[in-house]
Amino acid sequence: MLAFIRKGLDHHNATCPMPAQAIMLNPANHELFGWDELWGLPVLPDDRVAPKRFRIQCDASAFGIEEEVEEYVGREIPASPEIVPAGPGGPRRIGDDPD
Q1: Which of 27, 51, 62, 68 would you call most buried, defined as having the most Cβ atoms within 10 angstroms of its Cβ?
Q2: What is the pLDDT of residues 29-46, one digit of tens each?
Q3: DSSP result, 66-83
Q4: Where are the domains of the chain?
């Protein structure tokens, strides 16, 4: 797990303009490993982190965005009729019968 966290932190540092603030672990993993700090960052328990996973917390973190995306993915998006030129007959709505 330590190697995966190190790799994730290195990836974060290479790709995110915001510095890491903390390493978040599932509370059971936090208790199991007993880490309070790694590489100068606090290691904190967080119920939102799945077991055997970790999160790097920073000011650019999108933590929780999954729930927002899921909420909107399940919603029906109202369709507005699209008007397209139909040639000599003039504009018509998509799906209209051409006759």
Answers
A1: 27
A2: 999 999 999 999 999 999
A3: HHHHHHHHTSPPPPPPPE
A4: 2-73
